[in-house]
Specification:
It contains 8 helices and 15 strands. It has 333 residues and is α/β, with parallel strands linked by helices.
Length: 333
């Protein structure tokens, strides 16, 4: 059973179609990266997963639950699929410790003692235990996520740009989640700190059932893979100019050129990847986004969804027709 499954999903806002016939399966233990231009439907796709947006047609399953069922319980869905948003809303009257405890107690019904023990361990892990009793006003750069419908997520995010020594700190404190969606949750960090931040995120999850989905714009470093994804211990980082040269230098249609380049880039790991990517800081893997200035025959933009499991790197290309402005499936590669 797939953890998240889109079947012919479309989403309209009035007369505007944002998602068109999306077919996508995400298996347990996979990390999925959604990369695309602004207004290409990335956030809308994420918001549909935990029913912050209702789909217009098709079916969508999360942890085996048909969330399109009119009888589906939103709270049950969000116990399995938490989301960290681009914008955060803080409880000014709760301390750092209380914020991290809130989700497990409120949503998972953990005891205060168990939630406190877990919260303190997570704060210790990222070097914030000494701030456990601090309130938001005295925690500059640290945020704790509550979703915009007022339901506290089972994912509680603490984020800071830098520690005094220049290292980033981020953690996602989860309460037995099956799926976590992150909507540019670490976009405030520059490339190298952002990678370190995600190292904390993935490193503490350690659950083979868990999937993580990161939606990011075209200018972001996205993710540092750690155990259990150690075979692909490189960053994903869009470097559009460099990749443009690779893709345009080959023959065939734009789609064929992109597929050829992706096949080459995702076929290597370990020492081979480090050798090929040695000229890029932290062994970054450039990802190509079809440029809005591309004069090629296809008048489209594209969003690439990369899936990194414990033994493979695969991708699915979605195109966005400029005239219709809808993200749509373009086939599994």
């Amino acid at each position: 059973m797939s953890m998240v499954e889109f079947n012919a999903v479309s989403k309209n806002f009035g007369a505007t179609q944002v998602l068109h016939n999306i077919n996508l399966k995400i298996e347990a233990g996979e990390v999925v990266v959604i990369i695309g231009p602004s207004s290409s439907g990335k956030s809308t796709l994420l918001r549909c997963i935990n029913k912050l947006e209702d789909i217009s047609s098709g079916t969508l399953l999360v942890a085996g639950m048909h969330i399109t069922d009119p009888h589906a319980n939103e709270c049950d869905i969000r116990r399995e699929a938490g989301m960290v948003f681009q914008q955060f809303h803080l409880f000014p009257h709760l301390t750092a410790l209380e914020k991290v405890m809130f989700g497990p107690i409120r949503v998972r019904h953990q005891t205060k003692a168990a939630a406190r023990e877990q919260a303190l361990a997570l704060l210790e892990r990222i070097g914030l235990r000494d701030r456990a009793s601090h309130y938001p006003a005295s925690l500059c750069g640290h945020t704790f996520a509550v979703n915009e419908k007022g339901i506290v997520n089972t994912v509680n995010n603490i984020r800071a740009q830098h520690r005094p020594d220049g290292m980033p700190r981020q953690i996602i404190a989860r309460a037995s989640l099956n799926a976590t969606t992150l909507d540019e949750a670490i976009a405030i960090l520059s490339a190298t700190p952002r990678a370190g931040a995600f190292h904390h995120t993935l490193g503490q999850q350690g659950d083979s059932r868990l999937i993580s989905i990161e939606a990011t714009g075209s200018g972001c470093s996205v993710i540092l893979l750690t155990a259990p994804f150690g075979h692909a211990n490189h960053l994903i980082h869009p470097q559009l100019a460099a990749v443009e040269q690779v893709v345009t230098a080959s023959s065939g249609s734009r789609q064929q050129r992109l597929d050829t380049w992706l096949t080459t880039q995702t076929a290597v790991d370990g020492a081979a990847a480090r050798a090929i990517l040695s000229d890029q800081q932290d062994a970054t893997l450039p990802i190509y986004r079809l440029s809005s200035q591309d004069p090629d025959e296809e008048n489209t933009l594209a969003t690439a969804i990369f899936t990194l499991s414990d033994d493979a790197v695969t991708w699915q290309i979605f195109t966005r027709d400029r005239q219709r402005a809808a993200l749509q499936s373009a086939g599994r590669q």
